[in-house]
Task: structure prediction
Amino acid sequence: MVLGPRAAWAAPTPLVHLDVVECPSLDARSVQRIFSADLGTATTSETGPNVTEVTITCDGEFVEVRVRDPISRKTLKRTFDPKSFGSQAESRVVAIAASELVLASWAELAANPTPQVPPAGPPPSPEAVETARGVVRAKSGAPPNPATPATRSELPPEEAAAPSPAKHEPHDHAVRPAWSAVDTTGRATAVISVRSFFRGYGTLWGGGARFGRERSGVVSWALDALVEDGFIQHVSVTSLSVGGWLGLYAQVAPATFRLGAGLRAGMLGVVHGPTGAIWGWPMLVASQSLRFNFLVIDLSGEGGFGNVLIEPGKPALKGGWASGQLGIGIAL
Result:
């Protein structure tokens, strides 16, 4: 699909042609709008020796962005999985990736205006070069480094039209929206916890720390350590426990939802008495996280069944329990 021209802006800008090919999962109009806004230049339906051509193609879950730039006289490409940034923002991520790749090409015009080895091809007009430099200066205030491996790969002219020998390139995580969900990062949170027993045995309050991560687009896991105090069967106790669980997750950016199962185990000590207990509780877990830049807010719930003898001569602690935790921390 070829995207049509937009109204000319007041200031002269380089001509850019944007083409989205066989990508049914993308909203082509949104890609055009976000691309133009992020790059600071309108698109055109024209093609020619003075027009920078951006082609977006899809291959399964992967998207390839290819830039043929007559101003810097080179061809760049980037291949990545946009779903790794959240399934609700594919068009935005692809548009920003395309904009950054064009800027990476134009940045060399400002960072290295007189290369010792000029590239092949007809030289661009001075006006085109200056407008491209102006876009870079307006966008960043300083020339970005076009040689960063994570942001571009350059093809020789004779290879530019040939298919890439590698089907996919590594994911480029430099294009990350500010609200990006946590599927590509870990999270460490400080946790406030409350644990209660259904039969009225008592309630424990406390807190600790938790670390979790999402992997492979499906699997989520977390580990934590908690210290909780309270009264059970009118006995003052302290619980030191570690918990771990494994589950599945889904994302609706900026939220991540998880459901899984695991085990909580530790030591239950009587504060004013000689006895205590080592226990282990299987549990079901539900969790939700919200991420804003590096801030993570996590809300979790646990539920299970326990059977623990708190003190000789008294009934064992036997029955269902539930726990809730609120965590605040950072993405790693």
Q: What stands out?
A: The longest strand covers residues 235-252. Helices lie at 28-39, 90-111, 126-140, 157-160. The CA atoms of residues 13 and 106 lie 12 Å apart. The mean pLDDT is 76.
